Amino acid sequence: MFRSYRSQVGLKVVLVAGWAFVLSWSVFTGQHVLWPILIGLALLFQIVHLVHYQNQLTERINYFFESIRNEDFSQNFEPRDKSSVIRSLHQNMQLINEYIQRVKIESHQQEHYFRALIEHVGTGILTYNEKGFVLHANQSLKKLLGLEQLTHLKQLEKVDHKLANVLQQLQPNEQKLVQFNGKQGTTTLLIKSGAFKNQKDQLSLLSIQDINRELDEKELDSWLKLIRVLTHEIMNSIAPVTSLSESLSNYYQKEGVPIPASTVDDKLIRNTIRGLDIIKEQGRGLINFVESYRKFTRLPKPEKKLVAVGDLLEKTALLRRAALPDDHTRITVKKPDEKLLVLADEKLISQVLINLVKNAVEALDKQESGEIQLIGRENSSGQVEILVRDNGPGIPTDIMEEIFVPFFTTRENGSGIGLSLSRQIMRLHGGSLKASSVPGKETAFTLLFN
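The structure corresponding to this sequence follows.
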């Protein structure tokens, strides 16, 4: 097409130049006045023809782009013109027009597919712009919020003012748990946010999920574990008391009739006193167990202050070194930067660290060369981490999930609340306590502060 176009335009320009040369020659050589007039008309005709040719092409190209801009793809550019250039131009326009139509149809199909997919999922999906106008809200979200239509975030203020505030303040790539009071009662929502930009606006994308069922299942599982441990501990204390009480009762009666006082001798009295002492010890043990449970459920609210992590680790190491049972175990501190600070209740966090180091010391009891490391650092996300690591026998994988269950213990004299208490303290600080272990090599507990 372009080669033919250049040839035709070139030919027309050559003809214009040729007639202009002939006109100049006729004027300067003094030819009859009729000749310059005829040659001038011929030159004018060639110029008008060239301009008309160019205008014709330009108008058709402009018309084509105007149709695209107005998304009018119904135009048909059939190659029926006499000019080969215009026929070729029409043919290419038709191909482009058909391609755009095909792309647009595929785009619409894909859009319908994704809309159907979003409507099908059980998670609520919400998209809105910076001004709060809702671009899309699927049926799961409307059902969850009890709304028939949702066009602006301000509508949520009538449903739940707290939820509306959370959505307006939510930052990209942030997630929050929110208690939502809807028509179906109080629901716990997990909200995750994302952000993307289209041609015009910065948009926010939220996924909103009702996790009440998951929380209920997890809570039930925790209660079952706790009840199982409580039952085990209480039965261990009550069974001997019941058995011993029955034995003592049998000392003083035969066939349901009390024995005569004259038959009570010193041996019987000593056995009775010894049995009552055992019952008293078991009772005290049960009282201590209940007191441990009360202690676990009545933690004080942390009084947070800025604490230097390095100093905290040094104090913990100093306290525990004095209580080491032998010289086979040593405690080392990998001191962090002096500027590494954490907002925490120093007494409560010290209690956690002392408990973790105590557990590590007990785990290294039979180790010939035991080492406990206290490490303070900042992770890649900018969060402060404190690690308590030992080179002991490790924690078996089958009980790793059980070690934080209240009153679960593998030691004879253990209360089973140390790790549970420590994790609870970290949760009160808005952080977490996690354990990792390589059996036969090492165990590490990580305190993570957000």
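Residues 332 and 373 are 5 Å apart (CA to CA).
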